[in-house]
Design brief:
The chain is mainly beta and about 120 residues long. It has a single domain, classed as predicted glycosyltransferase like domains (Thrombin, subunit H, Beta Barrel), CATH 2.40.10. It contains one helix and seven strands, in the order E-E-E-E-E-E-H-E. Strands 1-2-3-6-5-4 form a six-stranded antiparallel beta barrel.
């Protein structure tokens, strides 16, 4: 609808629900941390983490997913563009909105394939 203020109307790429593990570390810190991908698009991720990091932090990320009978991954450099506190039963952490900064074409193709093949993935509009 023209003139709509709905944020979903402004998305360049649709988001897909996922439930995948990831490893990340800040570009200037070698310590690797773990997290969970909640949803993804071709331009970013929504992740859950127990680590509090400021908006603007640049992260090196590896997202793991099953590919046949083996575990595969794609890697990306992303920036935290928003964050929120997340409290659930017996768990406290953060939701982080990440925008991709750089991804090799091979990894981009893996992401696109993952999003297109995800039979149990729900599109978020």
């Amino acid at each position: 609808m023209p003139g709509s203020n709905n944020i979903n109307d402004k998305r360049k790429h649709p988001r897909f629900d996922l439930d995948l593990p990831l490893e990340y570390h800040a570009a200037d810190v070698p310590q690797v941390c773990g997290g969970l991908v909640v949803n993804a698009s071709e331009s970013g991720l929504l992740v859950r983490s127990i680590k509090d990091m400021p908006i603007g932090t640049i992260l090196n990320i590896a997202v793991f997913f099953p590919e046949g009978f083996r575990l595969s991954n794609f890697q990306v450099l992303a920036e935290i563009v928003w964050k929120g506190i997340l409290r659930e039963e017996n768990w406290k952490g953060y939701q982080l909105g990440l925008k991709f900064i750089h991804m090799l074409e091979e990894d981009h193709q893996k992401l696109k394939q993952l999003l297109n093949d995800g039979h149990e993935i729900t599109i978020i509009r």
